[in-house]
Amino acid sequence: MEAAKRVDELIRILNDANYRYYVMDNPVLHDFEYDALLRELEELEEKYPQLARPDSPTQRVGGAALSKFEKVDHAVPLMSLQDVFSLEELTDFLNKINAAYPNTGFTVEPKIDGLSVALEYENGVFVRGATRGDGVVGEDVTENLKTIRSIPMTLENAPNRLIVRGEVYMPKKSFEKLNEQQEEEGKPLFANPRNAAAGSLRQLDSKIAAKRGLDILIFNVQLAEGMVFESHKQSLEYLRELRFKVVPCDLFTNSEKIKERILFINENRDQLSCDIDGAVIKVNDLNLRNQLGATAKFPKWAVAYKYPPEIKPTVVEDIVVQVGRTGVLTPKAVVKPVRLAGTTVTNATLHNQDFISERDIRIGDTVMIRKAGEIIPEILNVDFSKRPQSAVAYRLPEKCPVCGAHTQKDPDGAFLRCTGAACPAQLSRNIAHFVSRDAMDIDGLGSSIVDALIEKGLLCSAADIYYLSLDQMKSLWQNGTVAATKLLESIEKSKEQDLSRLIYALGIRQVGAKTGKVLASAFGSMDALRDATLEQLMDVPDVGEITAAFIYDWFKQPQGVDMIEKLRAAGVNFDSKRVIADARFAGMTFVLTGALTMFTRDEATEKIELYGGKASGSVSKKTTYVVVGENAGSKERKARELGIPILSEQDFLDMIQ
Q1: pLDDT of residue 372
Q2: Any idea where the domains of the chain sit in the sequence?
Q3: Residues sharing a CB contact under 8 Å with residue 534, sequence separation 6 or more, in sequence order
Q4: Which comes out higher in pLDDT, residue 545 or 59?
Q5: pTM of the entire predicted model
Q6: Max CA pair span of the chain
Q7: How far apart are CA 499 and CA 417, in angstroms?
Q8: By mean pLDDT, which of 132-146, 184-198, 585-599 is the weakest?
Q9: CATH T-level fold of 589-656
Q10: Residue 293 confidence (pLDDT)
Q11: Distance between CA 172 and CA 283 in Å, rounded?
């Protein structure tokens, strides 16, 4: 069968590309090529579901979120290590073993600051992954571990049963990106990569974990049925042959060389992709490990040397403001270069105006600085005795430093945002939102294509999408003309979308898809919405005073006015098709649960709103009806407990007809 051969080929190509990229750090495919092949595989598996395989890259992200994590009994306990905090303590450990067993070989590895897990394989297939827990019992996080691309789903020439131990971590780049997103969205920052990794791995929804960019380094064979290893070093080489991403490891017999290696790792930790908090020293000989044994808590054949944190003084030479993808203004202190945790620090995050004001940080101040979580430079406090007389209190600007639009403080937080509809700093994110499925639904205009078009100067606002030509776009793909033509057709089709989708696509703060529908129904046209007064906006159900102000201000900003006129000139639909047939469901709230067979959930929601009702995702005392499909779960049970009427799909259909 031709389709089966192509599926096998695509899985082989994509899995090899994942290994080259995530394990070997040697990419063999461009993002465009990888995305195109993955989409082809998804389409084939959707058409021929019997061809889907457990090692397919499409199977890495699960479906519905879990309600809880199941407990897992570890076949081999995951023990923790005894910490040592000085070279003297380390020397005592080495001397004690060498006194009984001269010329013992020790391995030295960086101690990854993450979350320990066990990966279990049966007949070469990844079947289970669990957190360390208390070392004896952990939690099943298999679905989240599948999202880590460096974990192989299948192994060649592996024993019937294999359990390996590794450390899940968040790479420095992923951590910085995640905290940038948290900061831009006005959410609390993660304290360090370990906390971020632990929180991500324990997400009940694997789709969230998949977005966090987690990775893993394998550092031990827990169990390999039918196999015998003489040394730790040998077992790690075997894991590399199986294509695992294995922790770097060096072997020494000389105590001084061991100490030199530990200090070398600390001095060069900035070259690692992950955060570390020490080095692990282990006896290499596995038979000797058995002889040395363990205490109730720790093995006697290994210790973890912990690196001390560094705090140093420096001077704030300037404060600069960056504008994030969501419009948040983030101040950063430019500091006199200082060496911290193996890198030269030249700036430090200041978070927001409240952070600056609370610590009274000013240009010219001498401050104490450290790396929060060994990653992000952070100012701890100011040495007021060294403050220059010319230093003045700092305030964030009232206008965006990128586009000049007015800035606006979050009503529920300490963050300041740019209100510009076409601010270059927010352009990529704004366009990605504009073309998303719930907005204008322009298929094929992914983030990599958007970024390429921005780089070419072809997109300066979301409205520019409707002015793209075939000649401008065809160079972005290998089969340029075909792909570009298909995308242009999708763009043209999007012009017919309902006004509710266009309102949501504009990206006005606090205006989600549901609010877009409410506004479209209330005003009927874009022009009526644009001309609405604050009082008229506040009269709309579900639109409060703050949201009304955001909408009103957006349409008064020059960038907003320009975008609306460009969209009008391009022929984008400005009228609502959401005419309420009658108000039979007015004041009613419906909850849909279970697998619906007579219509999709979106179609049912559309019907409810068509007759003036509201669809909700959760059951409460305010719920009017719960519509249940097949395999309905907790929502149906809660409805019965609260005495809320339950409708079958046929009952709901009868109400509509």
Answers
A1: 60
A2: 2-59, 73-176+187-306, 311-386, 419-550, 589-656
A3: 548, 549, 552
A4: 545
A5: 0.57
A6: 90
A7: 26
A8: 184-198
A9: Rossmann fold (3.40.50)
A10: 94
A11: 30
Gyration radius of the chain over CA positions: 29
Distances (CA, A) of 101 to 154, 291, 301, 404: 40, 11, 12, 72
> Could you tell me if 513 and 504 are in contact, meaning their C-beta atoms sit under 8 angstroms apart?
yes
From 352-366, 469-483, 587-601, the region with the lowest mean pLDDT: 469-483
pLDDT at 535: 92
Asked whether 135 and 147 are in contact (CB, 8 A), the reply is no
Q: Does the domain made of 2-59 have the CATH classification 1.10.287.610? A: yes
pLDDT digits (tens, 9 = 90+) for 234-268: 999 999 999 999 999 999 999 999 999 999 998 88
Q: How far apart are the first and last CA of the chain?
A: 46
User: Does the structure show a pLDDT above 90 at 412?
Assistant: no
CB 98 within 8 A of CB 114: no
Write the DSSP assignment of 125-163 as a string of letters.
EEEEEEE-TTSSEEEB-HHHHHT-TTS-SB-SS--SEEE
Q: Distance (Å, rounded) from C-alpha 268 to C-alpha 274?
A: 12
β-strands 115-122, 161-169: how paired?
antiparallel
Cα–Cα distance measured from residue 431 to residue 610, given in angstroms and rounded to the nearest whole number: 29
User: In the beta sheet, which residues pair with residue 342?
Assistant: none
How far is 160 from 157, CA to CA, in rounded Å? 9
Percent of the chain at pLDDT > 90 equals 48
- Return the amino acid letter for 408: Q
Q: What is the DSSP-derived secondary structure letter of residue 117?
A: E
Q: Which residue has the tokens 């403050």?
A: 387
At 595-640, the pLDDT tens digits run: 888 888 888 888 888 787 888 888 888 899 999 988 777 788 888 8
CA 31 – CA 51 distance, rounded (Å): 25
Fold held by 73-176+187-306: D-amino Acid Aminotransferase; Chain A, domain 1 (3.30.470)
Catalytic residue among 5, 68, 96, 111: 111
Q: Which two tokens stand for residue 565?
A: 């006129």
* CATH 1.10.150.20 applies to domain 419-550: yes
The first and second tokens of residue 173, run together, are 């780049």
Residue 39 has a pLDDT of 77
Look up residue 88 and give its two tokens. Answer: 């003297």
Residues pairing with 116 in the sheet:
167
* 111 a catalytic residue: yes
The mean pLDDT value for 16-20 works out to 80
Confidence of residue 207 (pLDDT cuts 50, 70, 90): confident
